[in-house]
Amino acid sequence: SNYQQAHRLFCLLSINGHADAQFQLAQFYAEGVVVEKNTTAAAIWFQRAAQNGYAPAQYSLALLYAQGKGVAFELASAMQWWRRAAEQGHAQAQYQLGMLYARGLGVNRSWTDSAYWWQQAAQAGYAAAQFELGRLYAMGAGVNKNIILATFWWEHSAKQGDLRAQQALLHTEP
To answer: What tens digit of pLDDT does each residue of 60-83 get?
Structure first.
């Protein structure tokens, strides 16, 4: 099948250090495509691609650390990999960093840091970050309170189907 051919090619390229192929191979193991599902093998290949600077792999590896799947549960490692991906402009990683700061998980709670990372992800078009950034503007947490900016970000999020943003807009005074 095409998947089997792709798997063989990804194996060959992965051994030779191609980060994108390493990431694709990790995905095969993570999802059980052509090979038996194996989160430990997925973590190994995500790690190799992540060390090669591949942001999607850094994000995926962080997720495994945050969930304790295929690797030990290590919030500090998750944060490190999310930060590396976020610094390369990976919107989902930026969103996750914002969540860690908002919840004070593995770091001191910081609305300012949450606002910074959610702003990055929101500007990249990530709906969940747009919603959260809107909430910060509505509350004045980590940013100056500004209902116009709250509404602006909620409208962007709502247009992408975020139900929380749609609800927030219904309850916002004009």
So the answer is: 999 999 999 999 999 999 999 999
Given a contact cutoff of 8 angstroms between Cβ atoms, the answer to whether 123 and 116 are in contact is: no
Q: How far is CA 4 from CA 7, 34, 161, in A?
A: 5, 6, 36
Q: Which of 60, 62, 2 is nearest to 33 (CA)?
A: 2
What is the maximal distance between C-alpha atoms in the chain? 59
Query: What confidence tier does 174 reach under pLDDT thresholds 50, 70, 90?
Result: low
pTM above 0.85, yes or no: yes
Query: Could you tell me which residues come within 8 angstroms of residue 101 by beta carbon, excluding any fewer than 6 positions away?
Result: 107, 109, 110, 111, 113, 114, 117
Cα(27)–Cα(45) distance, integer angstroms: 9
